[in-house]
Amino acid sequence: VSALGKHEKKYFRQYASTHSRGGKNKYLALFDAIEKDGANDNGKLLQKYPGPDARQLPNLKQYLYNLILESLDLYHGHADARSRLTKQIRSADLLMNKGLYPEALAILGNACKTALKYDRTLPALEIISRQFRCMTIASGKSVLASKEGERLLARQHKLAGQYQKDCEILTLHQQAALLQAEDPLGRIAEA
User: Fold this and answer.
1) CA-CA distance, 181 to 188, in Å (whole number)?
2) Within 13 Å of residue 191, how many CA atoms lie on the same side as its CB?
3) Fewer C-beta neighbours within 10 Å, C or N terminus of the chain?
4) What is the model's pTM?
């Protein structure tokens, strides 16, 4: 709780209030008790926070922790490309599960553009796989022979090659870092 910023705390309070019944929210009361005293110790919390008994408190704290993570995910969800991609993929999956294939394909198309814009090769490959699946389910037949299928297959092949190169470069960087850690003063290079 103490690690949250002022705006994050405000957002959490709004988010937590939507999860209450009858106007009483024991998680928000626990959040306030922890914030007020800065105490996370169960004994101190039981004295300050009269709600739960000792057996319930660990479960309440775990639920509060998860609720805080959910609210932070929503609060910061637009902050980076990976979060946006994850949200778009989840939305497309939901639409596919509901049988709304054209809408899912539109979201997947936008997600693929976002992935390529930010050089996110692996998510782009995942998105193309979902596009294939969505198109196949929507048409009831394999789309590999169609022009769109061929275009997606070519893009997938190109991205797979790029991903392989990225992995090789990452491996070289990691090996160089290991060598640097073994010889921080560069004595091996001097010999």
Assistant:
1) 12
2) 5
3) C
4) 0.58
Q: Are 49 and 30 in contact (CB under 8 A)?
A: yes
- The CA distance from 157 to 151, in Å, is 10
Residue 89 CA to its chain's centroid (Å)? 11
Cβ-based neighbour number of residue 96 at 10 Å: 20
Hey, what are 80's tokens?
């980076």
Q: Which two tokens stand for residue 22?
A: 């009858």
User: Would you say how long the chain is, in residues?
Assistant: 191
Task: Determine whether 85 is exposed, middle or buried from the number of CB atoms within 10 Å of its CB (0-12, 13-18, 19+).
Answer: buried
How far apart (Å, rounded) are the C-alpha atoms in residues 105 and 93? 10
CB distance 123 to 82 below 8 Å: yes
- Please name the residues in contact with 83: beta carbons below 8 A apart, sequence gap of 6 or more: 73, 76, 77
pLDDT tens string 148-164: 888 888 889 999 998 89
Cβ atoms within 10 Å of 130's Cβ, excluding its own:
20
